[in-house]
């Protein structure tokens, strides 16, 4: 996000920044959304099968995934139409939710993940890093 913030120029044409943002999202946004889809479809069902008491945690994380997906999808249109300050606030919001999400996920699931065995599991597919 700092890389994108550094490219925000109030005087630069929005199309120029939108192009830069598009290149960023080809890598980062696509990878993050793929990772979250893999967690939702592969990892979370496995966790819940072994730890049904974690339903509230998983639901919270899935809601974060949906919110981040919407914010990232909105990023391109925001980049074309928003002022530099509005764009910075949008990026700040994305970053704040990501920080909160990853911190919560780590606090709630690290022990569960550490205890999981990976026999007969495609770890890359489970975490969306294929």
TrEMBL record:
Alphabetized InterPro entries for the sequence: Hemerythrin-like (IPR012312)
Domain Hemerythrin-like: 12-111
Protein name in UniProt: Hemerythrin-like domain-containing protein
Species of provenance: Cryptosporangium minutisporangium
Organism lineage: Bacteria, Bacillati, Actinomycetota, Actinomycetes, Cryptosporangiales
């Amino acid at each position: 996000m700092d890389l994108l913030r550094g490219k925000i120029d109030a005087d630069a044409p929005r199309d120029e920044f939108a192009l830069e943002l598009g290149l960023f999202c080809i890598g980062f946004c696509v990878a993050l959304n793929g990772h979250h889809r893999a967690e939702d479809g592969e990892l979370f069902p496995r966790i819940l099968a072994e730890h049904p008491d974690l339903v509230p945690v998983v639901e919270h994380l899935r809601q974060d995934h949906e919110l981040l997906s919407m914010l990232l999808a909105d990023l391109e249109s925001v980049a074309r139409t928003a002022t530099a300050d509005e764009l910075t606030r949008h990026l700040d919001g994305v970053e704040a939710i990501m920080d909160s999400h990853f911190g919560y996920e780590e606090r709630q699931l690290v022990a569960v993940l550490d205890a999981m065995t990976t026999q007969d599991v495609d770890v890359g597919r489970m975490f969306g890093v294929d």
